[in-house]
Every structure is written in structure tokens, then in C-alpha cells.
Amino acid sequence: MNDQIQIVVRPTDDQASNQVLAVAAVLALEWAAPYTSITIGDHGEVVVDPKIEAIGGLLRLSPERTERLRASGRDAIHGDDTEIHIIENDDGDWGVHGELNTWWATGLALAASSFHARTSVGRALAETLSITRRDDNKAVELLEQSQRWALAQIDVAISTFAKNNPRRLGNLLLSATTELEAVAEAHALLRSRYQADIEKIGRDT
């Protein structure tokens, strides 16, 4: 849809750990509501404040996107292939020279060989970064936690949007229904056209 509900994630502050938490919140919300437009900023139609429960959203990153973020994080501090060790202070700052935006900070965290945390967000981040398998019990727990958080935020966002823009929400729902019907019709057409091939493949497998 071209006209989507606009959700803005507002970082708690500009400290690096909270910047990464904002990215985790974006990733969790994107997974829960792919029909919305989610960005990081200060103002928007619907503003969401990230909470520590959203940290598992980082586990939604694909391997390819993770590698791109790691590279951008290293580039942001003009780093080479040497190991990166992050030491967080009591405010959530990492003592990194130069300005880090939210995505660069996330890339730097992903590229780090170690993360020494001092804040609650930092400890949650360090725990998440240490996970290597998504089927690990802790990974599943964090993913479920971030999903519950995201779905709760989406419920509030839609309620707020409906209250402020009832007609526009109706148009969005109508547009979504029309698109889904078009996809269903295309699927039915393709299936009928290639039904014989589908059945043959089924017999051969």
C-alpha cells in the first residue's frame, strides 16, 4: 500500500545503547505489522517509545542485513578488521569518537567481539548479542517477548489512528482488502493454468 499508517519510534535519548534499542523496536514492529511504515524519529502520526522488552527484535535481522550493518558500523568509526570491544558507561554511552546514528550504533554492536554492559538496556543488549542460534531457548523467549510488546504497541497505534483519522483508516482497510482479493484471484488463475504441472510434480516427489 502506498498510503500506510505512519509509526515513529522515538529513542529514549541519544546514548548508543538506547539508539540500538530503538532499532530493535523498529524491527519488532516491522515483523508484527508489515502493512505499516515504521521509522525512527521524534514526531509522527503515531509515536512509540521503545522499551527493553523490544530488544529481541534484533534477532529478526537476516544474515545479509546483519553483515551490511556490521560493515557500516565499522565504517562509522573508521575501523579496520581489528576486534571491537564496547565498554558501556552508567549512562549507556560507549565512549566512541564521532557521531553514531541508530543504525551505525547497531552495526557497531553487532560487529563487537565483546560488550561490557553497565545499564539494564546494555545488559539486555549484551545478552541478545551473545545468542548464536535462533532456536535457542533464550532466543525464542526474547522473540516472543518482543512480539508481544510489538503487538501491544500496534493495537494502541491503530486505536489512536482510528480515533484521529477514522475515514482514512477505512480507506486503508478497503485498499488492503482490494489488494488481498487481487492476489487471491491471481493465485487462483495461476493455479488453474498450471494445475496439470502441479499434479505431475506432486506425483514425482
Molecular structure report:
The structure is a single chain. With 205 residues, this protein is mainly alpha-helical. It has 2 domains: 5-164, no CATH class; 167-205. Helices cover 57% and strands 9% of the residues. The protein has 7 helices and 5 strands, in the order βαββαβαβαααα. The strands form 2 sheets. It has a 3-stranded parallel sheet, covered by helices on one side. It has a two-stranded parallel ribbon with strand order 4-5. Strand 4, helix 3 and strand 5 (114-116) form a beta-alpha-beta unit. The two termini are 37 Å apart. The model has no long low-confidence stretch (mean pLDDT 85).
Uncertain segments are none
Give the strand tally.
5
Major β-sheet strand ordering: 2-1-3
Q: What number of structural domains do the residues give?
A: 2
- Largest sheet data: 3 strands, parallel
Rg value:
21 Å
Strand content: 5-15%
| Envelope shape | globular
Rounded average pLDDT: 85
Q: What series of H and E elements makes up the topology?
A: EHEEHEHEHHHH
> What's the end-to-end separation, in Å?
37 Å
Structural class: mainly alpha
How many separate helices? Answer: 7
Helix content: 55-70%
Brief overview, please?
57% of the residues lie in helices and 9% in strands. It is mainly alpha-helical and 205 residues long. The protein has two domains: 5-164, no CATH class; 167-205.
Throw out a few tags for this protein.
mainly alpha; 3-stranded parallel beta sheet; 7 helices; 5 strands; 57% helix; globular
Blueprint of the fold:
Elements: E1 5-9, H1 16-32, E2 36-40, E3 46-48, H2 63-76, E4 85-87, H3 102-111, E5 114-116, H4 120-129, H5 137-164, H6 166-193, H7 195-204
Parallel strand pairs: 1-2, 1-3, 4-5
Helix pairs in contact: 1-3, 1-5, 2-3, 5-6
